[in-house]
Amino acid sequence: MAHIESIADSCGYTDYSKNFVTYPPKGPLPVPGNNTEGVAGCKVWNQIFGAAVLTNPAFNVYRIFDTWPVLWDVHGFPGSFF
């Protein structure tokens, strides 16, 4: 977590959340860093997902409370979606 938090701080994600993700919104959200592609050193999604899978092998971004073992039924739910 400390590694991801340090990346968030250095890339301006922490300040971005504090300044722009508010209610009521001040207007359209600006692109972080004024770059539509993202900065290579600031892409943390894969690191976050990898840490979640290490913690919970059944991690599902759409159902974050699923735990191991993944339940199964004759229709193939919920594991057949991925």
Q: H/E element string?
A: HHH
Main sheet record? none
Regions with little confidence, pLDDT below 50 for 5+ residues? none
Shape, per Cα inertia axes? elongated
Description:
The chain is mainly α and 82 residues long. The protein has one domain. Helix content is 35%, strand content 0%. The chain is elongated.
How do you describe this structure in short?
With 82 residues, this protein is mainly α. It has helices at residues 2-11, 13-20, 45-55.
Question: Which features does this protein show?
Answer:
single chain; 82 residues; mainly alpha; 3 helices
Layout of SSEs?
Blueprint (H helix, E strand, L loop, with lengths): L1 H10 L1 H8 L24 H11 L27
